[in-house]
Amino acid sequence: MSQTKAQFELPLKLRRYENLHIIFWLLKDMAWSMGWRFMGVSMIIPTLLISIYMTKKFKGNPSEWYHNLAVICWIVANSYWMISEFFGFEELIIFSWIKWVHLALVPFILGLIFIVYFYLFVRKRIT
User: Fold this and answer.
1) Does pLDDT of 100 surpass 80?
2) What is the reported pLDDT for 5?
3) pLDDT for residue 2
4) Coil, strand, or helix at residue 96?
5) Which residues, other chains included, contact 21 with Cβ-Cβ below 8 Å and sequence gap of 6+?
6) Going by DSSP bridges, is the β-strand pair 98-99/93-95 parallel, antiparallel, or unpaired?
7) Cβ(52)–Cβ(101) under 8 Å?
8) What string of DSSP letters covers 3-33?
9) Which of 20, 24, 40, 120 could anchor a disulfide with 31, C-beta 3.0 to 4.6 Å?
10) Residue 126's pLDDT is what?
């Protein structure tokens, strides 16, 4: 990958994967909104796998790597939330006021931690 501090270029092969990833993600969320369980759940796999692949490919680029880690967390949280709604356990209480759907906060917060860590500590070292 050819890049400078002022410029970042995504190779065509990775751009195609990223675009395919967006299609799968849209299909997953569309299925979720329409209540199509099989399609929604089945779209988790390609969406997540492409995101993991993209993250692995950007290991040498801290900005892209941390942001892609956050995307993985977002997909996991979003997928768990969808599954909890599809199978009707989102409103079940685990403890006190905590419901099963609240567990989606774990990957959401982890994704935020990756982004905050990048901007507070890593970005300063690479700029």
Assistant:
1) yes
2) 55
3) 47
4) coil
5) 47, 50, 51, 54
6) antiparallel
7) no
8) B-SS-B---HHHHHHHHHHHHHHHHHHHHHH
9) 40
10) 81
